[in-house]
Design goal:
Blueprint (H helix, E strand, L loop, with lengths): L13 H20 L3 H102 L8 H17 L2 E4 L12 E7 L8 E6 L1 E4 L2 E4 L1 E6 L4
Parallel strand pairs: 2-6
Antiparallel strand pairs: 1-4, 3-6, 4-5
Length: 224
């Protein structure tokens, strides 16, 4: 073999071999750490599924809340309708009560008027005979004694008044003056104690506890 045909063989030194081995090892580790496309796609799908699940859960919660609000609204509307019906019923009942009360007042007034009319009729029926007696007394001839007839008529009048619960107010001389029952006409000289009744000018009348008319009296001014 000639020198020209000789093949140049490059022999690596030990340091160069170690460097190449380290470089190869680093490349392998980097390749191992870098995820593949399939692994990335799987991770993205998981995130999408988690997001979809969260959205679905949120929608379900909103749906439950809306359903609860709709139920409350329906219940409130039902209560409102019931309250309106109750108000309408009470208004109608009040109108009926007012109408009944108005009718009662009218009936009571008519009844009072009827009672008053009947009472007046009964009183007139009892008084007219007394008037007739007075007319007969006046028809007597002049000079005749009218006193017995008048006294008899007065007794009838007194009977009618007594039956109606009417009593005359006719204080005796010397009796204390009662401003609620006596009307003082004037003061006169009298042997009665000063400030007491001298005489009755016109009797009064009382019915039960009520004074119908006061007795008109003169009052003693004492002796002068």
């Amino acid at each position: 073999m000639s020198d020209d045909d000789a093949v140049d063989v490059e022999v690596e030194s030990p340091d160069d071999a170690a460097a190449d081995a380290a470089s190869a090892n680093g490349t392998a580790e980097a390749a191992a750490e870098e995820p593949s496309d399939e692994s990335g796609e799987a991770s993205g799908d998981a995130r999408d599924e988690a997001l979809a699940a969260a959205v679905a859960e949120h929608d379900e919660a909103l749906a439950r809340e809306v359903a609860a609000l709709e139920a409350d609204l329906a219940e409130t509307r039902a209560e409102l309708l019931e309250a309106e019906e109750e108000v309408e019923e009470l208004t109608s009942k009040l109108a009926r009560v007012k109408a009944d009360f108005s009718n009662y007042k009218q009936r009571a007034k008519r009844k009072q008027d009827e009672i008053r009319e009947r009472a007046s009729e009964a009183l007139v029926e009892r008084i007219t005979p007394v008037r007739n007696d007075l007319l007969r007394a006046l028809d007597q001839e002049e000079g005749s004694d009218l006193r017995p007839g008048v006294e008899s008529t007065l007794e009838k009048f007194d009977d009618v008044l007594a039956d109606e619960g009417v009593e005359p107010i006719a204080p005796d001389p010397g009796e204390e003056v009662d401003p609620a029952r006596h009307q003082v006409m004037l003061r006169v000289e009298s042997d009665q104690p000063e400030g007491t009744v001298h005489e009755v000018y016109e009797p009064g009348y009382e019915m039960g506890d009520r004074v119908v008319s006061e007795a008109k009296v003169t009052v003693s001014a004492g002796d002068e």
